[in-house]
Amino acid sequence: MSDRDKQGVIHEVNGPILRIRIPGICNGEQVKIGKLGLYGEVIALKGETAVVQCYESTEGVCPGEPVVSLGKPLSVELGPGLLGSIFDGVQRPLDKVLLASGDHIGRGIQLPALDRDRHWHFTPEPEIQASARLSPGQLIGRVQESAIIQHRILVPPHWAGELLELAPEGDYRLDDPIGRLKLDDGRTRKLMLYQHWPVRTPRPYLRRDHGLMPLVTGQRILDTFFPLLKGGKGAIPGPFGAGKTVLQQQIARWADADIVIYVGCGERGNELVDVLKTFPQLQDPYSGHKLMERTLLVANTSNMPVVAREASIYVGITMAEYYRDQGYDVVMLADSTSRWAEALREVSGRLDQMPVEEGYPAYLASRLAAFYERAGRVETRGCGKGSVTLIGAVSPPGGDFSEPVTAHTKEIIQTFWALSKELADARHYPAIDWVGSFSEHVSTAAQWWHKQISPDWERRRQQALGLLARDAELSRIVNLVGPEALSSAQRWELVGASLIKEGVLQQSALDPVDTFASPEKQFLLLDMVLMIYDRGVELIELGISVQELTDLPLMAKARRAKQTFSSEQTGQIRALMEEFKHAFSQIRLEYAKFKEHAQ
User: Fold this and answer.
1) Is pLDDT at 399 greater than 50 in this prediction?
2) Sheet arrangement for strand 133-134
3) Are residues 303 and 386 both part of a single domain?
4) How far apart are CA 542 and CA 584, in angstroms?
5) Which pTM was predicted?
6) Among 262, 280, 343, 524, fewest CB within 10 Å belongs to which?
């Protein structure tokens, strides 16, 4: 059926939801709406009546205006030029939108996501010649997309057949064919530097693999206490002001991933403006180049159309899967899935669907699960192993973790970094609650830590968490009856927990030294404070007072070591540990002499 046959009219307008009559249209197809040429997609069908959600405001759109089917679902362009770009929720490049309509995004603007005028230097794979049999997802050439990322040109996932010709090495624009492929059904298709893919369909791969390596973020409470594997699913729930956005920005900057995709979904405009201004100025700590050379941003603020907010999550994950298929480790940060769920709630309400928990639709849990299941480490069809790590921020109203979005997310993900308003109010950042957080990856991460850093990692981690748990119990006793009710050993436990909190868990994103800690530095800081605690326990058992130990000048050095020594100065941390051992030995000797003299 031609596009001429797939024309219809608007029957009803209800906010972003329209009912149209159009023959032969399919569920999921995109349509062009009214005289303004707004874009939307079909989300339900009843006979020849279709329900359409529009990505833009429908003010001024009237019943009777024409609608034209575009014959394809909501899709994204995938090719060289994605990195360093900033898109809106339906992959319109915001820099081009600014030139076309000014500071406010005009309605009906449709621009290609990728620059059609730029030339890219294409290098074909030497072993691929004409008449070769090509399989879906096979690597056929390379383009240097940025100084640090080589873009691998792949056969589209559903194409297979005989290669008729492949372009020689040279400079090509995106619309210049680089080859021709005769498909198995006899049709001939042009091979391009880019491809399209529907955002709601996961991209195929050979097989799913188990995660093996932790995602190193440089944030001690994440890496050491609640690790997340590459290809894992994580969530950062927390109330307003607890530091979700700063923590996500820290992960985006310091994570040892090849590609970072940051999706600002329904968050406040001033927060996203800060991201958009800050990221292009940041330097990639691993390569020394601009951070944006391995980063792309999707910006859809809370004042933008609600349906585009819902689409932005799928746009981001599809681009993440595309780079995964090239064999890269990708981290996608979604800020926040709560705003995405609110978009689902608004649309379902306009569709008169039966609401369930707090007005959310009945399919909220399944939509969340389907989104997070697109994470994972996989064996790709042509580029070895790749992974997508998903980290979603959740914004529960009033910090109530029992609300539906947080509760369902907690059942799906593997690592839960719960932010605490009480810690944030106490200026303890990152304000991650070590009691409410968890990780299912500890045993797998332990294998990496034992091999790369120290076989004592898991034991020290468990010891620290146990000490923090006892600190919570003892703090309640102190609040009720005062510190006098505690024994010397119990008071020393409070000191040890304080050392862990101040010397290890607290980490300033603004401190040039402390903003990042290598795994080696993380373990040495933890090992040092626990060594201090262990030696102190021995001395207290001999009868030495807690006050004498806490008055040691070295104790302040232990608390400041994280800011004093960089990740390259681990030798100085070891030297400080030796100073502590010597100081404790001296105390033991002096006490022994004192006891001998007293006798």
Assistant:
1) yes
2) 133-134, 161-166, 179-183, 188-191
3) yes
4) 12
5) 0.94
6) 280
Phi-psi region of 352 (alpha: psi -120 to 50; beta: other; left: phi over 0): left
The vertex-412 CA angle with 436 and 228, nearest 5°, equals 65
Q: Please state, in angstroms and rounded to a whole number, the distance separating the CA atoms of residues 523 and 517.
A: 10
Instruction: Examine the fold and report which residue of 43, 73, 103 is the final residue of a domain before the chain moves on.
Output: 73
Q: Are residues 287 and 365 in the same domain?
A: yes
Strand partners, 77: 196
Asked whether the beta carbons of 67 and 11 are under 8 A apart, the reply is no
Is 100 domain-assigned?
Answer: no
- How confident is the model over 349-389, as pLDDT tens digits? 988 888 999 999 999 999 999 999 999 999 999 999 999 99
Element (H, E) at 598: helix 570-598
Could you tell me if 521 and 559 lie in one domain? yes
Q: Residues 6 or more apart from 446 whose CB is under 8 A from it?
A: 457, 458
Amino acid residing at 212? L
**CATH code, 425:** 3.40.50.300
Instruction: Give the whole-angstrom CA distance, residue 95 versus residue 83.
Output: 14
The alpha carbon torsion through 77, 80, 82, 84 (nearest 10 deg) reads: -170
Range of the domain at 511: 457-598
Decide if 105 is inside a domain: no
The domain boundary residue, chosen from 169, 193, 217: 193
How many structural domains comprise the chain?
A: 4
3-state secondary structure of 366: helix
**What value does the CA radius of gyration of the chain take, rounded to a whole number of Å?**
28
Helices (runs of H) and strands (runs of E) counted in the chain: 16, 26
Closest alpha carbon to 563 in 498, 524, 497, 516: 516
**pLDDT grade for 1, boundaries at 50, 70 and 90:** very low
pLDDT averaged over every residue in the chain: 92
Nearest to 262 by CA among 445, 392, 103: 392
**How would DSSP label each residue in 260-310?**
EEEEEES--HHHHHHHHHHGGGPBPTTTSSBGGGGEEEEEE-TTS-HHHHH
Task: Identify the helix (H) or strand (E) that includes residue 533.
Answer: helix 519-542
Which amino acid, one-letter code, is at 299?
A: A
In a domain, 280, yes or no: yes
Q: Are residues 478 and 377 in the same domain?
A: no
pLDDT in tens, 187-228: 999 999 999 999 999 999 999 998 889 999 999 999 999 999
3-state secondary structure 453-522: CCCCHHHHHHHHHHHHHHHHHHHHHHHHHCHHHCCHHHHHHHHHHHHHHHHHHCCCCCCCCCCCCCHHHH
Tell me the C-alpha distance between 194 and 154, whole Å: 9
Banded model confidence at residue 2, pLDDT cuts 50, 70, 90: very low
Asked whether the beta carbons of 404 and 340 are under 8 A apart, the reply is no
Residue 154 one-letter amino acid: L
The residue among 333, 350, 164 whose CA lies nearest residue 264 is 333
Q: Which residues of 480-490 are buried (b: 16+ CB within 10 A; e: fewer)?
A: eeeeeebeeeb
Q: What is the pLDDT of residue 599?
A: 63
